[in-house]
Amino acid sequence: MGKRMKIDIAAFTLEGSDCWFFATNINRLFYKNIVTNEEKDCGQVPWEESNADNLYRAIEFLAGKVYLIPYKARSVAVYDTKQDNFYEMRLPNEIIEGKKLLFKPCLKYGQNIFAFGIHSRSIMIIRTTDNKMDFITDWSEKLNKYVSCPTGILSRKQIAVIDENVYLPLYYGDAVMVFNLINEIVSFKELKYNISGYSGISKIDDELVLVSKGPDVKFISWNVKNNVTEVIGNLSIDDCTTDISVIPKGKEIEIFIDKTINEVKSKTDNMTISEKIECVGCEYDKSYFWSRISGEVEVVEANQKRKINTDVFINEEISKDYLNSRAGLKEQDNFGINEFLDMI
After folding, report:
1. Residue 52 lies in a domain
2. CB atoms near residue 89 (< 10 Å)
3. In sequence order, what are the residues at sequence separation of 6 or more whose Cβ sits closer than 8 angstroms to the Cβ of residue 225?
4. Based on CB atoms within 10 Å of each CB, which residue in 44, 82, 207, 246 is the most buried?
């Protein structure tokens, strides 16, 4: 016995027609094939509490294994699809000690998975061929030159990749962190727009589009080949804690907002606004957007969009646990503010 349900998704990845997603407020990994509709409840990470929330906010699939990147968890969980079991990759104490939130976002490149620290000033590299991890931390002191809140989070949700460079906009600084996937070296690009920080980034060809934090939001274009930047849009909103993610479409901009905004005070004509999109996943060649408990994930790849239905069948015992945890969230209605406080 059980029921088909829409899951409150914390992390999502798509590999061909196979998608893997982890629940927000219960410890559960799910699989679904979007062509055949084959699905599976892969179970819970055995060393974590069954009702723990936001354990993992990023997933990568590589060589038959699903890598769950720790957000509130303290280790990497790996699900072996052939063996149908989990195993743990422990993180060193200096990476996790005193840190609220660990890693997000992440991406895979070749046989490696790269995850970028939130409160942890490190880049974690999972080298899947020998099942080992390395941590790059030598850029931490250099970062202090560019951030206004040294103890705050590094970045928010989005990354962008052009050639072999990963671009992460700083959440507390007017700069972008640049990480080269080949030589594994970090550098910084200062933008000098007198902006307190950025919440989103995306790309089209050799051009990046960055979005600053509210309430007076700027959209900045950066052509990384000729190193030219310019403001291409503005948005005025009534909430400085709102996170905005962005997809550029030529000179048009589609923005995804993490909550319903009471008032959009002004915007430029080249913007389309989609509200209530709280969750974003980014990879090397595609991005994912979804709202909580919607049961759908929007995949953006090569500037084309498609929607994926992620409802799954859950047995009676698990569905009761899930509904109880959802009832607690609805009663408090505080997911957004709790997450924001975690980020400070």
Report:
1. yes
2. 16
3. 206
4. 246
Residue (of 140, 142, 106, 101) closest to 124 by Cα position = 106
* Domain ranges, residue 5: 1-137+314-344
The verdict on residue 69 lying in a domain is: yes
Return the CATH number at 116.
Answer: 2.130.10.10
Q: Is residue 4 part of a domain?
A: yes
Q: Round to whole Å and give the CA distance between 51 and 62.
A: 27
Q: Which residues contact 76 (CB under 8 A, 6 or more apart)?
A: 67, 68, 69, 70, 88, 89, 91, 126, 133
Q: Considering its fold, how many domains does the chain have in total?
A: 1
Domain for residue 336, yes or no? yes
- Of 43, 70, 44, residue with least CA distance to 57: 70
Question: E-assigned strands of 163-251?
Answer: 165-169, 175-180, 186-190, 198-204, 207-212, 216-223, 228-237, 244-249
Order of strands across the sheet that contains 252-257: 244-249, 252-257, 271-274
Note the pLDDT tens digit of each residue in 288-300: 888 766 778 888 8
User: Which DSSP helix (H) or strand (E) runs through 273?
Assistant: strand 271-274
β-pairing, 271-274 vs 252-257, is parallel
Residues of the chain with pLDDT under 50: 329-337, 340-341, 344
Which among 107, 111, 43 is positioned nearest to 77, based on CA atoms? 43
